[in-house]
Design a protein that fits this description.
elongated, alpha+beta, single chain, six-stranded antiparallel sheet, four-stranded mixed sheet, 12 strands
Length: 311
């Protein structure tokens, strides 16, 4: 859809009229005006008028739309509009792709409702700094491999609990009855970095070690994401789609397309059984160290599934 929308925008008349690009549902779709992309939803919830702008987004609600020039699939009435603002008169592919994907997810998973809340959920994503510190690609890949394996191999879809609270998360996955911290490595004997108080505390915590290798026979990040989102039985929440786009923004677009990885193994450990320091003196804080998981007792997925429901 990205290429089709870009092509339509390049041919958009400059007469100020709104033109339909693609209908997403009976009440929502992608439109264009003067070469700008709009996501527009019929205001069935009777949201009052609001006009808000950020660096990349512009929100207008309860706007009178009389007609759509090239297609009468949408009735005259009040609409809510979300516009993505070009950068130097152009749309960077990664920015435009994220906007398109999330608008589609809003229609698919939220039935195009709660439009203003949807706008606010995008603000942090579309206000990234110009100079980025790219997140480790391998770590992102490892987390997705775990979610994919749990859902497809063990009927344990926990993708909606992944990065539940965004950047303030203490753990990668926060389930109702336990937490999972994920560490991605390239070999079984590789030392992992532990923040002691994060893993070893009074909560019901698990540590998941994901072993991946860079390999041309594997999947790129983009291929892995597309593969997961095409599985309509799993990974079908708006929160998951939003977090995918947030994390993609922290990865080099070139690496996301070209670097390929294979999953070698997943090992699960219950924190309380692998704690190397049972008692930490009160005068020591913020303890971090490298730790080997070789020969540490593992638990199987069924144990983790039960623990996520009942402690």
């Amino acid at each position: 859809m990205l290429s089709a929308i870009k092509d339509a925008l390049s041919k958009c008349p400059s007469d100020g009229s709104i033109y339909l690009i693609d209908k997403l549902s009976d009440i929502s779709g992608f439109f264009m005006v003067k070469g700008h992309l709009l996501y527009m939803v019929y205001n069935s919830e009777e949201t009052s008028h609001q006009n808000l702008s950020t660096e990349y987004l512009k929100l207008n609600t309860n706007i009178d739309i009389v007609s759509v020039k090239n297609d009468q699939k949408f009735k005259t009435g009040k609409y809510n509009l979300l516009e993505i603002i070009p950068v130097a008169n152009e749309y960077p592919d990664e920015l435009l792709s994220s906007f398109i994907n999330l608008c589609i997810s809003h229609t698919t998973y939220m039935n195009a409702k709660n439009f203003v809340s949807f706008f606010y959920s995008l603000i942090s994503l579309f206000q990234r700094p110009k100079e980025q510190n790219y997140k480790n690609l391998a770590g992102f890949i490892g987390e997705l491999f775990l979610l994919k394996s749990f859902a497809e191999d063990y009927d344990f879809d926990i993708s909606d609990y992944w990065h539940t609270y965004g950047s303030s998360d203490n753990y990668d996955i926060v389930l109702p009855k336990c937490n999972i911290e994920i560490k991605t490595t390239s070999s079984e004997d590789e030392l992992i970095t532990i923040k002691h108080i994060q893993i070893f505390n009074t909560e019901n915590n698990y540590l998941a070690s994901i072993i991946i290798n860079e390999d041309n026979s594997g999947m790129s990040l983009n291929e892995l994401i597309n593969n997961m989102l095409s599985n309509h039985k799993c990974f079908n929440s708006f929160n998951f789609s939003l977090n995918i786009e947030k994390e993609k923004m922290r990865v080099s677009p070139v690496d996301a397309e070209t670097k390929r990885f294979i999953l070698k193994g997943i090992s699960i450990y219950r924190a309380e059984t692998i704690n190397p320091f049972k008692n930490i003196p009160d005068e020591i804080s913020n303890l971090s160290y490298k730790m080997s998981l070789m020969d540490k007792p593992q638990v199987n997925i069924d144990v983790l599934k039960r623990s996520s429901i009942n402690v």
